Amino acid sequence: MTSDLPHFTVASNLREQIEQWAQELGFQQLGITDVDLGEHEQRLQQWLQQGYHGEMGYMADHGNMRSRPDELQPGSIRVISLRMDYLAPEIELTSQLQNKNNAYISRYALGRDYHKLIRKRLTQLGKKIQQAIEAVNQQQDISYRAFVDSAPLLERALANKAGLGWIGKNTMLINRKAGSYFFLGEILTDLPLPTDDSYQKEHCGRCTSCLDICPTQAFVGPHVLDARKCISYLTIELDGPIPMELRKGIGNRIFGCDDCQIGCPWNRFSKTTAEQDFSPRHQLDKATLLELFAWDEATFLKRTEGMPIRRTGFENWQRNIAVALGNAPTSLEVVDALEKARSTSTELVRQHIDWALQQHQK
Ligand code: SF4
Ligand code: SF4
Question: Same domain for 312 and 219?
Fold first, then answer.
């Protein structure tokens, strides 16, 4: 642990207090680090230069700000990195994926949108820290700002530096005691808290499960993901047609993909959450492709209100399900549903329906 000279008087047990408040607010762990991410900055630049971010222009838009939190929030010298488990206890991970008539939605997206919940809790934590500082510093203010799953920050690199885990070959943050099914959030502050500075070394060893299991072979190598081939990108971020050569690999995954986490042995240690908000809504963890393909736009908007799924939009939702139906076992019901939807669909969805129908003629 290092200790800087604070311009604030900081109670000696402030760190313990912060941990206790964080736990009360539903976080499982936190770590504190400074804002220097030099090594990661270089890797990010190389990744962007290769074009692996595809159409996710926002990843390049922020320039060096992503690896320099003090440019994002001027005056910041510390990052409090926190994690919150999201796996709802009732979720069965593999059976939904294995039944090709069922729709697979990434585990993190089945409940309420986590951004609001986590940002609110982070802000509450920041407020508590501020009040504690004010109490011993004649009302002197600290500055703090909360981030969650935020494009302008290299969250996993910060969490790694803060000691919450290592960045696995699958590019996820992995924790020895909790696997990788958790959300990350950060508080950037000018409060000179002691840092943990314990870059966690990698514990992947010789394992390559995640690289081998990826259905679209999206990994260029360990730690390097070509997002343009990743099912999460294809089903969530990409607007327009899904490249033909990747459609088969998508299988029945209609929003995101968890395979490189399901295949990770460290997820034997993942913990379930007690947060009701992360429980699946509308039984989307058990839905069939045909049920979801029958939704009209009004139903989509109503059922996905307040959920991450809303983000992909109705047209892309239908496009994704059409691809998954092309990969489903051939049956009269599947072919009927595709043919019926064809006349009322947009041009984009129709192209994917035609592809799906071709799969059932083979
Ligand atoms: S999320 Fe799925 S498609 Fe993307 S890298 Fe992991 S296994 Fe591959
Ligand atoms: S699957 Fe194996 S190689 Fe991949 S992140 Fe997990 S431990 Fe590392």
Answer: yes
Residue 254 structural domain:
209-269+279-359
Going from the Cα of 227 to the center of ligand 1, the distance in angstroms, rounded, reads 9
Active-site positions read 149
- Atom of ligand 1 at shortest range from CA of 217: 8
In this structure, is residue 310 part of a structural domain?
A: yes
Minimum-distance ligand 2 atom for the alpha carbon of 264: 1
Between the alpha carbon of residue 119 and those of residues 27, 124, 156, the distances in Å are 12, 9, 17
Collapsed DSSP state (helix, strand, coil) of residue 142: coil
Residue 209 Cβ inside 6 Å of ligand 2? The answer reads yes
H helices, E strands: number in the chain: 16, 10
Report the number of distinct structural domains present in the chain: 2
Tell whether 83 is covered by a domain: yes
Pocket-forming residues, ligand 1, beta carbon under 6 Å = 214-216, 218, 225, 230-232, 257, 259-260
Closest atom of ligand 1 to 225 CA is 5
pLDDT tens sequence across 158-200:
999 999 999 999 999 999 999 999 999 999 999 999 898 676 7
Whether residues 223 and 180 share a domain: the answer is: no
The alpha carbon of 208 and the centre of ligand 2 are apart by a number of angstroms equal to 6
Question: What's the rounded Cα separation, in Å, for the pair 29 and 164?
Answer: 7
Residue 214 CA to ligand 1 centre (angstroms): 5
Query: If pLDDT is split at 50, 70 and 90, which confidence band does 350 have?
Result: very high
Q: Which of 222, 244, 221, 224 is nearest to 234 (CA)?
A: 244
Under 8 Å between Cβ of 146 and 140: no
DSSP strand pairing (104-105 vs 253-255): parallel
d(CA 290, CA 300): 14
**Span from the CA of 39 to the centroid of ligand 1 (angstroms):** 25
Would you say residue 224 lies in a domain?
Answer: yes
pTM (predicted TM-score): 0.92
Angle of helix 14-24 versus helix 114-136 axis, rounded to 10 = 150
pLDDT digits (tens, 9 = 90+) for 78-126: 999 999 999 999 888 789 999 999 999 999 999 999 999 999 999 999 9
CB 356 within 8 A of CB 323: yes
**Residue 53, amino acid:** H
